[in-house]
Specification:
This protein is an alpha+beta fold. The strands form six sheets. The chain has a nine-stranded antiparallel β-sheet with strand order 7-8-9-10-19-15-14-12-13, with no helix packed on it. The chain has a nine-stranded mixed β-sheet with strand order 34-33-36-31-30-29-20-32-35, covered by helices on one side. Strands 3, 4, 5, 6, 11, 16, 17 and 18 form an eight-stranded antiparallel β-sheet that branches. The longest helix has 21 residues. The chain is globular. The C terminus is likely disordered.
Length: 655
């Protein structure tokens, strides 16, 4: 995992590009990435997963790696050891690529302990956007063949119809180029991972129709293999023409209104300090989210703290209510608290503790009992979990002012590239969800880097070991990468017209700034006491454009650069981010006149974190747009703010 802390790069995973004729792959930490035939991607990733009874992925530790490659073929071997709590599983890998387009990946493993597993074996990721609408053929374990289609819309059937018991999978990559994959050692299925904002479809073992979890006894051996064969029926052009300079093109036509932006209440439970209040006010937020479990009497204390903090910052509350089957009594008692505290609630999000998607009756009951207290407050529901839950059980929308679900990018993978790939899919979930609820506005709440909880857990997760970060915390929260990713998320959701978005928390290692007391684990989460995180400045950059309009910003390579363009009251601002650890040359098209540019990068990040007020008044530098464009060079994971000195909006167009 590569992270930029104050401009210093942590050790990067070793990656090797291996070639065998037209077949080429990247080997990184034992996984095969970007399995290609020439320039055509066949598989995004091939890896072996060990997942426990709560669907947690147990990471491997690799050893004895050997790589032999001469351009005409390659062989790879290594040992992978998955060890966590009661799980102890070891397997050896054997990978071979041959010039004729055949790739074989074999794993032979043995359990060194007795444990419960939900899955052990191969996972293959297919690029969803590139394959959407293409036909595939599946051979089942009984020898029969069925056809299916890689879905364009996010599939609500898990797994995909026609992939119940796969022994082989065949599909056309492009016209004249066909791939066939043979599976040995288990049966496989396919699912649409865009339900969790991954940018892929996944072929995996074991079929979900089989019981899980399953006890694996000590000494049990597990062996699997996949064999990929690629064939050409005509000559395929293999020369890739890559434009080194990336382009971000800004539309002239104004689109959606910038959504209401809020933050979650801090999970550490401490009051806001005067410094934190001042910094939060500078973000011109819409709301703070507070979670209230009404069956727990302590919610009264939480509500009182939330009301006080909302007034201190000058914002409303987005109150997520978690009801039980005694909801009528709970809501009646809540009404008494509301009359006593008068919290500034603007939106109620209604959930039930035993339901993944809120039933209509709970929304109606909440509206009936709470609407008299504040007739202007909005009522929303959906799921406290993810788009997947909405897609499985579509909510009744007739009584909703907004519908809601949460987003995080690490359901299946945690590397930087996978997180970047998820950005575009966030907007895709919004478009799909809007169709499910007949155009009801979306309130995405919250967006986090790590999952807040496991909706599929069957037993309680163990506490983190001493010195380890909690599973909800990602050290990239305080990195330049975290800022670039946040900008990409805002762009994806704002351009797709969501009503509101709640991000992260106010302070602490899941927030936008560190507590003044500092990080509880400074060796693992290396922030400065009382600093802001780089992503704080993304929210500060959009603060002056609340209620403004969003212009479409189209990137030539959205996995490399991204941008958000805003207009309000005759002002135009473009926020630009480098999503990679490489220096990027970027041409921004659709800007004019004198430009003022400020960059947040490895050279300026220390000041930006420790002295944010001083950093924000630094004037930056000036450039003159030429023929409606300007060229910038961005350092790794850098972000830039580009302001036009004069802009007007007339009849929906920026001129």
């Amino acid at each position: 995992m590569n992270i930029l802390y104050y401009g210093k790069e942590e050790p990067l995973p070793t990656a090797q590009r291996l070639e065998s004729g037209s077949l080429n792959v990247t080997l990184e930490e034992g996984d095969l990435l970007s399995v290609c035939w020439g320039r055509y991607e066949i598989l995004r990733r091939v890896h072996v997963a060990v997942r426990d009874q709560n669907w947690r992925t147990i990471p491997p530790r690799l050893s004895e790696l050997e790589v032999h490659s001469n351009g005409k073929g390659f062989r790879v071997s290594y040992q992978a050891h998955h060890r966590q709590e009661d799980i102890d599983f070891v397997w050896t890998a054997s990978i071979q690529g041959m010039r004729d387009g055949t790739l074989t990946f074999r794993m032979d493993g043995q359990a060194r302990s007795t444990f419960l597993r939900n899955r052990i074996g191969f996972c293959l990721l297919h690029p969803a956007r590139e394959y959407a609408g293409r036909v595939f053929a599946v051979q089942q374990d009984d020898g029969s063949w069925v056809q299916g289609v890689f879905p364009k819309q996010i599939a609500n059937k898990q797994p995909l119809v026609g992939t119940e018991r796969m022994k082989s999978l065949t599909f056309e990559v492009v016209s004249g180029l066909r791939a066939a994959i043979q599976f040995d050692g288990d049966l496989f299925q396919m699912e649409d991972q865009r339900n969790w904002t991954d940018a892929t479809l996944k072929t995996f073992c074991t079929p979900l129709s089989r019981p899980f979890p399953v006890e694996i006894r000590q000494g049990t051996r597990i062996s699997q293999a996949i064999t990929l064969k690629v064939t050409e029926s005509r000559t395929i052009e293999h020369v890739a023409v890559e434009e080194k300079r990336k382009v971000l093109s800004i539309s002239k036509q104004a689109g959606a209104t910038l959504p209401r932006i809020g933050l979650g209440m801090s999970s550490h439970g401490q009051p806001l300090t005067e410094l934190e209040i001042s910094r939060l006010k500078a973000l011109d937020l819409s709301h703070l989210r507070v979670d209230l479990w009404l069956s727990d009497p302590s919610y009264r204390t939480i509500l009182a703290r939330a009301a006080a903090q909302a007034r201190q910052v000058g914002v409303a509350l987005e109150a997520a209510l978690f009801l039980s089957n005694s909801a009528e009594r709970e809501l009646s008692l809540l009404s008494e608290e509301l009359c006593r505290l008068h919290p500034p609630v603007s939106t109620w999000l209604v959930f039930h503790a035993d339901e993944k998607v809120t039933s209509q009756r709970w929304v109606r009951l909440t509206r009936q009992l709470l609407r008299p207290w504040n007739p202007r407050a909005l009522f929303g529901a959906g799921t406290n979990a993810y788009f997947y839950q909405l897609n499985q059980k579509r909510p009744a929308w007739e009584d909703l002012d907004v519908f809601c679900y949460s987003i995080h990018p690490q359901e299946h993978a945690s590397d930087n590239r996978s997180l970047v790939e998820s950005l575009e899919i966030q907007g895709e979930t919004v478009r799909n969800a809007r169709e499910l609820v007949q155009g009801v506005p979306a309130a995405i709440s919250p967006v986090t880097l790590k999952p807040r909880f496991n909706p599929n857990a069957t037993v309680a997760s163990p506490a983190p070991l001493p010195g380890e970060l909690p599973p909800e915390v990602d050290a990239r929260q305080m990195s330049l990468f975290g800022a670039a990713w946040t900008l990409g998320s805002l762009k994806s959701l704002a351009e797709n017209g969501v009503f509101s978005v709640t991000y992260y928390e106010t302070s602490g290692w899941r927030g936008v700034m560190e507590r003044e007391s500092g990080s509880p684990l400074p060796d693992r989460f290396r922030s400065f006491p009382g600093c802001v995180f780089p992503l704080y400045h993304i929210f500060a950059d959009i603060a002056a454009f609340q209620h403004g309009q969003v212009l479409a910003a189209n990137a030539s390579d959205p996995l490399t650069v991204t941008g958000l363009a805003l207009v309000r009251d005759g002002r135009k601002r473009v926020l630009l981010a480098n999503l990679t650890r490489e220096i990027q040359a970027v041409r921004v098209e659709g800007v004019a006149g004198d430009l003022r540019i400020a960059e947040l990068n490895e050279a300026s990040v220390t000041q930006a974190m420790t002295s944010p007020d001083k950093f924000r008044v630094v004037p930056g530098y000036s450039l003159q747009a030429t023929r409606g464009m300007v060229e910038l060079t961005l350092l790794p994971y850098a972000t830039a703010r580009i302001d036009e000195q004069s802009t007007t909006v007339e009849e929906g167009f920026v001129v």
